[in-house]
């Protein structure tokens, strides 16, 4: 692949969401939950250039809030639930969703950085 070749951002984002290397789509990009590997475990491209900072955390928070708040509205307009049970269950849903989504969003950010050749990619 030459340096001038255009990289497919959509494909890189999808591969990132699947926690796969944005270049080959086979190797893994993260280890220990959120740590970016120095190199792809399959094709060997360097990944240590990635610098996503707090972007994935903010985006994940926005998505989780966008999912949880309507659930509050649906629960309280359709049913008359116990507030304690609602708070407890939606905290669990929010935590689970955030923990599931955060590495995938980080993978998307990493893939988009790779596709745009940012930070030395
Ligand atoms: Zn790879």
Description:
The chain is elongated. A two-stranded antiparallel sheet has the order 1-2. It has one domain (9-115). Helix 2 runs antiparallel to helix 3 (83-115). With 121 residues, the protein is mainly alpha-helical. The chain has helices spanning 9-17, 55-78, 83-115; strands at 30-31, 35-36. The model has no long low-confidence stretch (mean pLDDT 93). Zinc ion (ZN) binds next to loops.
Small-molecule binders here are:
zinc ion
Gyration radius, in Å: 18 Å
Number of helices: 3
Total domain units? 1
Average predicted confidence as pLDDT: 93
Order of helices and strands: HEEHH
- Which segments are poorly predicted (pLDDT under 50) over 5 or more consecutive residues? none
Distance between the termini: 13 Å
- What is the share of helical residues? 40-55%
Q: Which sequence of strands runs across the widest sheet?
A: 1-2
Strand count, sense and closure of the main sheet? Answer: 2 strands, antiparallel
SS-derived structural category: mainly alpha
| Overall geometry | elongated
How much of the sequence lies in strands comes to: under 5%
Tell me how many strands there are. Answer: 2
Features:
single chain, 121 residues, mainly alpha, two-stranded antiparallel ribbon, 3 helices, 3% strand, elongated, binds zinc ion
List the helices and strands and how they pair.
Blueprint: H1 9-17, E1 30-31, E2 35-36, H2 55-78, H3 83-115
Antiparallel strand pairs: 1-2
Helix pairs in contact: 1-3, 2-3
The structure holds zinc ion.
Residues 21, 23-24, 27, 40, 42-43, 45 line the site of zinc ion.
């Amino acid at each position: 692949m030459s340096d001038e070749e255009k990289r497919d951002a959509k494909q890189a984002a999808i591969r990132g969401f699947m926690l796969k290397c944005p270049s080959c789509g086979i190797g893994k990009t993260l280890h220990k939950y959120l740590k970016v590997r120095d190199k792809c475990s399959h094709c060997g491209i360097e990944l240590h250039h990635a610098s996503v900072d707090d972007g994935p955390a903010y985006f994940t928070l926005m998505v989780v809030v966008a999912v949880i708040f309507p659930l509050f509205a649906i629960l309280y307009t359709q049913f008359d639930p116990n507030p304690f049970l609602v708070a407890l269950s939606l905290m669990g849903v929010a935590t689970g969703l955030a923990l599931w989504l955060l590495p995938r969003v980080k993978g998307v950010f990493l893939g988009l950085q790779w596709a745009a050749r940012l930070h030395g990619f």
